[in-house]
Amino acid sequence: MKKIIFAVPPEVHLLDINGPAHIFYEATELGAELELHFVSLDSKTEIKSSAGLYFSKLVEVKSISLKEDDILFIPGLEYHLISDTVFIESIRPFLDWVIIQYKRGVHICSVCTGSFILAETGLLDNRSATTHWKYFDKFSERFPKVTLEKNRLFTSAERISSSAGVSSGIDLSLFLVEKSYGTKLALDIAKEVVVYLRRSGLDPQLSIFLQYRNHLEQRIHNVQDYLINHISEACTADQLASQVHMSKRNLTRLFKKTTGITIGEYLDKLRIEKIIALLAEGNKVDYVANQVGLKSSNQVRTILKKYQGVLPAEVSSINK
């Protein structure tokens, strides 16, 4: 029976802990043999979250016995705590306990600013990690021995994982479920929790699915939604215009005015992000082309050339 342990620090961010916890709960509902445990960093049995909701009946962390391949999550918390040397010293016994668990074969994961606590153990030294984009500079200044990945949803290697925060903790959890129980279970869970397009660690923190959406023009939102949901189809401008009852000319003008880019540029960006994810999963180029509405592998290579300078090396190599 694998144990999934969630450390609950003071002023914990709710989604950082509840998101991953719900993914593993759904895994148990679909047959995975898992036990979920919620522990405090010390002897406290009740913790107030950053949103004011309380966690109660917590178990003292030292009372939990872990074994190889169990998973420990360290969620994010308010920055004023992790920047307080008094607080860091107060949780030193917990940090020492984390090091011991890692040596026993436990997989250690951080979400959002939980990376600061994980880095305090020294386990991230000479490794790659990520954290919330808002704290990149503070993290790099404080932990110069850690290679900070600034454009990743999560990193995972040698039983240490870190995620960018909030919803990326869900992405990391689905990745871990897939690693232990297979792709079908992970996809079934993603469907159950209504996660659109399960994301990989190679996806950027500011995804194209979120960019260019900070406007209030509902017709353009509808067009963007249509493109996302029909990315495997070859949509024409006339088809898009008919979806929002506009002329092709007016839609083209309004889209550029609203988002700052053309419909074609937006579609290219959608395709690039999906191509990177599909190639990273090991799919053949012809299959990838079909999934993003392109006619051939040559068209995939052509669109990748536009972004050659920003692609991961493993993806760029297909053009060579």
Q: How does the helix and strand content classify structurally?
A: alpha/beta
Order of helices and strands: EHEEEEEHHHEHEHEEEHHHHHHHHH
User: What's the total count of β strands?
Assistant: 11
Helix content: 40-55%
* Rg over C-alpha atoms, rounded to the nearest angstrom: 22 Å
Shape: elongated
| Number of H- or I-type helical stretches | 15
Give the low-pLDDT segments: none
* Mean pLDDT level: 88
Cα end-to-end separation: 46 Å
Give the percentage of residues in beta strands: 5-15%
Give the biggest sheet: 7 strands, mixed
Strand order of the largest sheet: 5-2-1-6-7-11-10
Question: Can you describe this structure?
Answer:
This protein is α/β, with parallel strands linked by helices. It has 15 helices and eleven strands. A seven-stranded mixed beta sheet has the order 5-2-1-6-7-11-10, sandwiched between helices. Helix 1 (14-29) links the parallel strand 1 (2-8) and strand 2. The chain is elongated and about 65 Å long. The model has no long low-confidence stretch (mean pLDDT 88).
Topology:
Blueprint: E1 2-8, H1 14-29, E2 34-40, E3 47-48, E4 54-55, E5 59-60, E6 71-74, H2 79-82, H3 85-90, H4 92-103, E7 107-111, H5 114-120, E8 128-129, H6 136-142, E9 147-148, E10 154-157, E11 160-163, H7 168-181, H8 183-192, H9 218-229, H10 237-243, H11 248-259, H12 263-280, H13 285-291, H14 297-305, H15 313-316
Parallel strand pairs: 1-2, 1-6, 2-5, 6-7, 7-11, 8-9
Antiparallel strand pairs: 3-4, 10-11
Features:
320 residues, alpha/beta, two-stranded antiparallel ribbon, 11 strands
